[in-house]
TrEMBL record:
Gene3D superfamilies documented for this protein: 3.40.50.2300, lambda repressor-like DNA-binding domains
Lineage of source species: Bacteria, Bacillati, Actinomycetota, Actinomycetes, Kitasatosporales
Annotated organism of origin: Streptomyces ochraceiscleroticus
Top-rank taxon: Bacteria
Entry-linked InterPro entries: HTH_LacI (IPR000843), LacI/GalR-like_sensor (IPR046335), Lambda_DNA-bd_dom_sf (IPR010982), Peripla_BP_I (IPR028082)
Name listed for the protein in its UniProt record: LacI family DNA-binding transcriptional regulator
Amino acid sequence: MAAAGRGGRRGGRPTLEEVAARAGVGRGTVSRVVNGSPRVSPRTRAAVERAIAELQYVPHGAARALAADRTDSVALVIPEPETRLFAEPYFSGIIRGVGAGLADTDLQLLLILVRTPKERERLGQYLSAHRVDGVLLVSVHADDPLPDLLSRLELPAVLSGRRSARETVPYVDSDNTGGARAAARHLLERGRRTIATIAGPPDMYAAQCRLAGYRQALEDAGRDPDEALIVPADFTEDGGRRAMAALLDRRPDVDAVFAASDVMAAGALAVLRERGRRVPEDVALVGFDDSVVARHLDPPLSSVRQPIEEMGRAMARVLIEEIAERSRERPQLVLPTELVVRESS
């Protein structure tokens, strides 16, 4: 049918693609209208029905069979190993939020981990076969090919975060820059002079934004960021440990640290203890996420709260809307963050 849609009518009979083009929607949307699916907005349904009438389109068996392609399932894809999935509260928060967002629908949620190139290839084949109606993608790196594959497949998708400021795929993100700026500004206001940061992976836009916020706070205070006080890590506890050790070796006079995740802050705290540094007396410490980790550390960790579960619910809501009606404008939501001050700073 796709070839007929590109080349014009075959034998003069209107095609499903021509109806979709006339109505300004996708082929799947026309199929849902034809088959009486409730997952179409009244406005879209009216546009499709008007196009059907104008073209005198008569559905046939193949068109009706398209409805059987619906799987009533969506995939939550996390391209990380199990160790990160179970160690970092961010992922469990997203899963809880997505589950809550889908609770009142008929959609089943499939959790898919992608750990190796072979698994990524297998996932590509799975998605190409349209085994799911949509995809939620978490932990996006700049070079991740999955968002572009989803776009080529015209498969509804929503990202948690984004690859860059020019992201074209629908996404739900938090104000990473503003949150990091608030964290660094708080440390400045506490009178700290040598403020370091343990940044996230350079190929993740969220990490880039948090580093930018740290820099902005220093520049706002009339200070030039010292590159010796910036150490990238990988959002893991071990990464936080290694980065904190490197900072103390490099700049033993450090008196404050902004870690770009609570898990990395936990690793940093362990190293500070090992080196005989008191928190917050000698070194103030702030994390990012305001996860359960922050509340259970000793001392409790000051942290930037991002609404992780609400992000998951918003992702599910946007995906449901995209499945029902692919919007021409890509939905892009940025939720606010808030600094929660505790004893560590």
